[in-house]
Amino acid sequence: MERIPILRMGSFLLITIQVDMHDKLAMQLQDDVTARIADWGATGVLIDISSLEIVDSFIGRMLANIAAMSRVLGAETVVVGMQPAVAITLVELGMSLPGIRTALNVESGMELLYRTTAVQPGVGDERSQA
Amino acid sequence: MSVLKREQLPLRSSSDVVVARQKVREWSTDLRFSLVDQTKLVTAASELARNALDHGRGGQMTLEVVNGMSKTGLKLIFEDNGPGIPDVEQALKDGFTTGSGMGLGLGGSRRLVNEFSIESELGKGTRVTVLRWK
Asked: Nearest by CB to B108, which of A53, A85, A94?
């Protein structure tokens, strides 16, 4: 079955959504992220949606679910890279994604994760090699 | 209002919803809608196609390029043979949901287009028509 890859970087999970997601793929991602957080003890999740041309209420809900489930499992989620046209549409649709931390790009998203999870850059990387 | 071009697509599975989105993107790009307007149309199509699938047990989407009062627009018609909507006014309110969604589908997509109409008959099905002018 088709899956969205989840990369591990230290104690963070990195997810880049590059496909036009159908609903089953979105549900699968939700399951996979929570399983990886539990397996790897991740403390941060970064989701890059810069390739997504739309975010509708279904995908918005999936992002909100991932953020909520991750928080319950002890991990912070940051969604990065939303295209301006997507942001305009999403707000007009009625979804302003409350409860989801966002950042403009991967770099500032990573900074936000380092700050909020108090993981020092590099420390997690060493641990993953051990 | 004259119809310049028309095409019909089935909405039977969640991959049909993806195809419907791609088709709306293609047509709105051809009509040279701005990027924001394209995004609004594709997002509205995604919401309404999913509604037809999840609540209407599937159906079809019709795309039409229309011309009226020297303006060009893209019209999308979503038809299903589902149970119909008992209270259309209520269904259009934000937060109203019978399923697992957020209840933004109908009311939300109405805000993304210029014209919106909905006809629903209990036991027969629902037809939602949206139009965005260029």
From this structure: A94
Q: Is B60 on the interface with A (CB under 8 A)?
A: no
Give pLDDT, residue A18. 84
- For A87-127, write each residue's pLDDT tens digit: 999 999 988 888 899 999 999 999 999 999 877 666 545 44
| Class of residue A72 by CB neighbours under 10 A (exposed 0-12, middle 13-18, buried 19+) | exposed
Nearest to B39 among A21, A57, A85 (CB): A85
Helix (H) or strand (E) holding B20: helix B14-30
Q: So where are chain A's domains? A: 6-118
Structure-model confidence comparison of residues A118 and A40, the more confident one: A40
Residue A110 distance to chain B (closest CA, Å): 28
Domains of chain B: 2-133 (3.30.565.10)
Residue B109: closest CA among B94, B124, B120: B94
Q: Given an 8 Å threshold on Cβ–Cβ distance, is A94 in contact with B36? A: no
What is the predicted pLDDT for the residue at A127?
Answer: 46
Contacts of B36 in chain A (CB under 8 A): 85, 88-89
Determine which of A90-99, A100-109, B64-73, B102-111 has the lowest per-residue pLDDT on average: B102-111
Q: Is the dihedral angle over the CA atoms A17, A89, B2, B81 positive or is it negative?
A: positive
Amino acid identity for residue A13 in this structure: L
Domain A6-118 CATH (choose: 3.40.50.700, 3.30.750.24, 3.90.79.10, 3.30.2020.30): 3.30.750.24
Distance CA B24, CA A41 (A): 42
CB-CB neighbors (< 8 A) of B39 in chain A: 53-54, 83, 85-86, 88-89
